[in-house]
Every structure is written in structure tokens, then in C-alpha cells.
Specification:
single chain; 288 residues; alpha+beta; Transferase(Phosphotransferase), domain 1; 2 domains; 8 helices; 10 strands
């Protein structure tokens, strides 16, 4: 079945999807759209729900088919008869990396650790033949109990090479506090450890499709003894200021935990409930 545009009234509090997921509160979610905090009437748990007007059944099925370590699980998808298509995901309390860098800043070691974790998650996603489509600081979450996770993939994405290019831009942004323009060139200042600067330049200059997310993760694992004291904050620009109210408000909670130097799969413990639910919800959801 082809994707159905969301041309009917938007989602709102009190709506129940598939006789199961009740929308409770709106949370602004940035480029992927508004996220709703929802209540799962079957389990009593909390879920995230967003409109997914361009989602096809095929992609929805693929995203719900299996859990991907380091990626927020997609639990269900479907189409409400009057409100359009939607996606249900596991709820993660945390702060986006964009908000963390804006509010508290990141060290070089943290920038590398976060990007490496995102690269490993992306490699696992790509191994299933799925692209993400939105690997940015706004869509990488630092859960309240530690670790790093990517938000759920976009409704439409098929370019694995674009995801890898986004990883390079993510690393450069987190290390320098500046957004990367076109052409992709590492911005001036602050001074970076030579090894880190070299890797950033190498990744930004790579030809599309010449490397993989797994290779990026391996490359970053070789960066050791990086500074963990100097903090780099995000540099405000007019373009960013226009969307400042949307950044960092996905799954709102302030984050004060420590980012491990090289996050391991065990740091995704908060996902256990959501991962277990995938086996239950991994089928198309249709409203009654």
C-alpha cells in the first residue's frame, strides 16, 4: 500500500490509535516532526508517537521487523482513518546532543565517543539494508541513564552513503561547535588535537560511498588520549537561532550523567523494555 499524505486534522491529546496508544502530551521534536508522549493501554507503558505522512507500509514493516542496537525501536505503525499515518516508538528520557553542546559543551573525547556510538548504531542499521536519513546532533540522544542512541529513522531514506557523510559532519560539528556547510570543510578554530583534526578532514573529504559507518567507528576507536577538559560549546548562528526552540526538546529530561569514552552495547540498558516490546508490536497497526 502506498504512503497516504496526512491531509486530515493533526494528532491531538486524547486520540487513541489502534485502540491502544492514547496521546497524552505534545513534545516538540525538531526536523522529524512533533513527538507525542503516549500511553500504551495494553502494557501501561509510555511510548512516543509521531505523524508519519510519507511512511510506506514496506518501510514501516522493515523498521518494526527487528531491534537495532543503539537506535530507538519502532514499535508499530499504522493509519488512523481521519488523522493519517503514524509511527510508535519506544520512549527514551534524555537530552539531544545538540542541547547538551549548547548548554554544557562537549570535550574532544566526548565528541569522538558520541560519534563512534552513532557510527556503530548506523552500521547495525545499514547491515539490515536500512538508511537513517537524519544523523544530526538534534537526532542523537543522551539517555538519562547513560549511553548514546539515535532517534528512529526518517519516513523515507535509502542513501547509506548520505548517512556516512552525515557522520563526518556530526563529528566536525561536535568537535568545533560549528555547523558544516557546503562544501564540507572543517571550520577554523577551536584548536583540535592533530589526530582528531586529521580524521575529521579525512572523513569530510571522502568520496560518497568510499567508506562505511563500520569503518568510521573503527577509525574513531583509534583516537585515544584525547583531551577531556577543554569544553567546546555550540556557536550560535542565525540559521540555528531560528530553530533553537526545537533543539533538545525530544524526550525532555536534563542530562547530567557521564558519557563513557567508548560507549559499549551494555550502555543501552534503558532500551530493554522497548526492545522486548518489538516482538509484540512488530506488525502493522491499523486503527479500529
Amino acid at each position: 500500500m502506498a504512503a497516504q499524505p496526512l491531509q486530515s486534522p493533526a494528532l491531538e491529546p486524547g486520540i487513541v490509535l489502534d485502540d491502544r496508544f492514547e496521546l497524552r502530551a505534545e513534545v516538540r521534536g525538531g526536523a522529524l516532526g512533533t513527538i507525542w508522549r503516549g500511553h500504551d493501554r495494553a502494557t501501561g507503558g509510555i511510548v512516543g508517537v509521531r505523524a508519519a505522512p510519507r511512511l510506506t507500509d514496506a518501510r514501516g514493516d522493515a523498521l518494526t521487523a527487528r531491534a537495532i542496537t543503539g537506535v530507538v525501536p519502532v514499535l508499530a505503525h499504522g493509519a488512523h482513518p481521519t488523522r493519517g499515518r503514524y509511527l510508535v516508538v519506544a520512549w527514551v528520557d534524555g537530552q539531544t546532543v545538540a542541547a547538551r553542546q549548547r548548554d554544557a559543551g562537549l570535550t574532544a573525547r566526548q565528541a569522538v565517543a558520541i560519534t563512534a556510538a552513532a557510527a556503530r548504531a548506523l552500521a547495525a542499521l545499514h547491515a539490515q539494508g536500512l538508511a537513517h536519513g537524519a544523523v544530526t546532533a538534534e537526532h542523537v540522544i543522551l539517555p538519562s541513564d547513560g549511553g548514546v542512541v539515535l532517534r528512529e529513522p526518517t519516513d523515507q531514506a535509502d542513501a547509506l552513503a548520505a548517512d556516512v557523510d552525515a557522520l563526518a559532519r556530526l563529528l566536525a560539528t561536535l568537535a568545533t561547535g560549528r555547523r558544516i556547510g557546503t562544501p564540507a570543510v572543517r571550520p577554523r578554530g577551536p584548536a583540535l588535537p592533530p589526530a582528531l583534526a586529521s580524521v575529521i578532514d579525512e572523513l569530510l573529504a571522502a568520496s560518497p560511498g568510499s567508506t562505511t559507518a563500520a569503518a568510521v567507528a573503527e577509525r574513531l576507536a583509534g583516537l585515544v588520549d584525547l583531551d577531556d577538559t577543554a569544553v567546546v560549546r555550540a556557536i550560535a548562528t542565525p540559521a540555528l537561532d531560528e530553530t533553537a526552540d526545537l533543539r533538545g526538546e525530544m524526550h525532555l529530561q536534563s542530562y547530567s550523567g557521564v558519557i563513557p569514552s567508548v560507549p559499549e552495547p551494555g550502555t543501552y540498558a534503558l532500551m530493554v523494555a522497548g526492545l522486548a516490546a518489538v516482538g509484540v508490536f512488530a506488525r502493522r497497526r491499523r486503527a479500529a
